[in-house]
Design brief:
By secondary structure, this protein is α/β, with parallel strands linked by helices. About 40% of the residues lie in helices and about 20% in strands. It is globular.
Length: about 210
């Protein structure tokens, strides 16, 4: 395996409209990021930050309540441009595979980049772990992150809907699924009955 290869587990939290119907001009903006970087099955660093939204800088009451995030926290966060600069730096450290739970994180990142006329910063392979989980277990519907980890008899890290905690939880369930894949891909050892036609042996002794 490429020694420079790194897995980047990413989770974002976004702005939310006040009601279910989005107001004119609204689009989800990244306001919290959590990143876990893994090389050779070891976490080499983590990153966590709030990000100041620019299109709708004031968080709605629904957003603050659902995510348990305050206006002051995002006001003191980095700018989206600064965050993109950080993501660009990740490309310098190795060959990347970006792992997320669901496809919404990358969709919103691409949308935010387009709105601010910035090139998409991440290179390498993209993996939607929730889709892999669904296919692996034959589920009809995609499972939520914390429900999936609970189905393994485990608990999520920290608090749900905190970006770094969810990124760490994604890494933990990634390890569980990968271990199951390796276990199921191992060839089943043959028994002596598989290697010898016992009916022929018994007929020989019967004569």
């Amino acid at each position: 395996m490429d020694t420079d290869h790194q897995l980047i587990f990413i989770d974002f939290e976004f702005t939310m409209p006040e009601g279910k119907a989005q107001s004119k001009g609204f689009y989800p903006e990244i306001i919290e990021v959590g990143i876990v970087i893994v090389k050779k099955q070891e976490i080499i660093r983590t990153y966590s930050s709030f990000v100041k939204p620019s299109n709708n800088p004031l968080l709605t009451s629904r957003c603050k309540s659902f995510l348990n995030i305050s206006q002051d926290q995002v006001d003191l966060g980095i700018t989206f441009v600064e965050f993109i600069s950080y993501l660009n730096e990740l490309n310098q450290y190795g060959n990347n595979t970006v792992v997320t739970w669901g496809n919404m994180d990358m969709k919103v990142l691409k949308l935010n980049c387009e709105k601010q006329h910035l090139p998409f910063p991440l290179t390498g392979k993209m993996r939607d772990l929730s889709l892999e989980y669904k296919k692996f277990f034959g589920d009809r519907n995609q499972t939520g992150l914390w429900k999936a980890v609970e189905e393994y008899g485990k608990k999520g890290v920290g608090s749900h809907h905190r970006a770094l905690d969810d990124a760490l939880t994604t890494y933990n369930i990634f390890k569980l699924v990968e271990n199951d894949k390796r276990y199921l891909s191992r060839p089943v050892p043959t028994t002596i009955g598989d290697r010898i036609d016992l009916s022929k042996v018994m007929s020989k002794f019967a004569t």
